[in-house]
């Protein structure tokens, strides 16, 4: 079981790319200029920073073992 | 003014403070988009400060308007704060100030409504920030009592220079920021 579960609201993503800066091993911008997570769950704590730095608030990070939202 | 200059001074200070805060917020918004400092600053901090300065700019703008109504040096009704063109003093310049304030409110509110209106509409509305900045600059220069002072001129020129420089930077082709190496320890 991983630590964090990631959800991206693709309708809100505006390709600022700050998530890729914060957690480059987890996030990437796809051909359409929308952020994709390479994995739905991860132990990389950078995803919390990625969610906080998203200017659109398009990324939600939850604890994988429950519904608690951490960012 | 009519004797007590308190509200007159508050109006002038509020207007200049609002302009400086607006310029700061616009500059930081461009920093969020263009990332001229790379990884040397945390994007989350810049984004938070961008929004906070915008909120403070709105508060200072409200202070500017309310103080002008209460002062009475120029006859300004509460209605004139929301309807452009009702202020007899330099009507074009003051109308630009009213329009800038209203657009600023709309842009700020759009963030809270971004899920409802969608990212595309939010981005289009955010482009109006440039119009807000231009109108606020014109309003300050054309209607401001202090616009002839050296330090005020320095404020306007610094703000215009920073915004223009970052807009130019934004238009340049972007070099990807290198990924940090993953620790193997």
Low-confidence stretches of chain A: none
Backbone structural class of chain A: alpha+beta
The portion of residues forming beta strands of chain A comes to 25-35%
Distance between the termini of chain B: 69 Å
Fraction of residues in H or I helices of chain A: 10-25%
Query: What is the H/E string of chain A?
Result: EHEEEHE
C-alpha Rg of chain B, in Å?
19 Å
Distance between the termini of chain A: 19 Å
Global geometry of chain B? globular
Helix % of chain B is over 70%
In oligomeric terms, what are we looking at?
heterodimer
Q: Supply Rg of chain A.
A: 11 Å
Poorly predicted ranges of chain B:
none
Order of helices and strands of chain B: HHHHH
Total strand count of chain B, please? Answer: 0
Describe, in plain words, how this protein is organized in 3D.
The complex is a heterodimer of chains A (71) and B (185). Chain A has 71 residues and is an alpha+beta fold. In chain A, 18% of the residues lie in helices and 25% in strands. Chain A has helices at residues 18-22, 46-53; strands spanning 4-8, 27-29, 35-37, 41-42, 59-63. A three-stranded antiparallel β-sheet of chain A has the order 4-1-5, with helices on one face. Chain A has a two-stranded antiparallel ribbon with strand order 2-3. Chain A is globular. With 185 residues, chain B is mostly helical. Chain B is built from five helices and no strands. In chain B, helix 1 packs antiparallel against helix 2 (43-71), helix 1 runs parallel beside helix 5 and helix 2 (43-71) crosses helix 3 (91-112). Chain B is globular, with a radius of gyration of 19 Å. Classes of the chains: A alpha+beta (71), B mainly alpha (185). At the A-B interface, helix 1 and helix 2 of A face helix 2 and helix 4 of B.
